[in-house]
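In response to reviewer comment 3 from the previous cycle, which asked for concrete evidence that the modeling workflow produces usable outputs, we include below a single protein chain processed end to end. The sequence was submitted unchanged, and the resulting structure tokens are shown without manual editing.
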Amino acid sequence: MSALKTKYKILMFLSSYTPLFLILLLKAISQILEKVQDYANLKIPEAVSENMTFVEQVQIVAQHKTEFISLNIIPLVVIVTIILVIIVPNLILESILRETKCSIDFKDLYVQSVQKMNHIYMEYLVSYIIPFLSFNYSNFFDMVSLLILLFTICIIYINSDLLYVNINFSIRGYNLFKVYTKKQNEYMVLSKEKQLYPDKILKVVYISGSSERIALDTEQEQTE
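The workflow returned the following structure tokens.
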């Protein structure tokens, strides 16, 4: 497979943060629901609002939807953006994996030594602390701060060729291994095998360019 273009690497980076974006989405929706309640309380007497159900509050907002949207345009745009950021990169990742699995351009990879690297996903989870900080999606500066942070991580991710650091691979049942060949070339191999062993020849397909040395073990893929 040819080397991935930068735009696809960015999409793979975004797909690697799918759980994070799901958490951010829930936080954004929670803030909107609070705003629905606050808006409904402004439109009706306090004595009445105390006994209203959430459905009734939504109905009041629906009657003034243009005003409500204009007052909450930033968090609503954030919600739509996050939904797109969740869906589009994961569709691209699925397409890349499908293309890789269907490839007939197999390469033999001799395993001189091997190290299981699944622990890297646990280190990666540290980044999920981000959404639990007090971000306010209605605050422009909070949103810019979050974007700067994600942009910085994205640059490091791409420049360091960390495409294999993607929790979606683990969710799909892949284990991550660092493999060294006889020439001491280093490869990151994704495999559904629980363990790889030295002195074994793997049939692999490169997920991206061969220079990036990120490969998919195809042996178990072919038996499924």
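The two ends are 22 Å apart (CA to CA). We consider this sufficient to address the reviewer's concern, and the full set will be provided in the supplementary archive.
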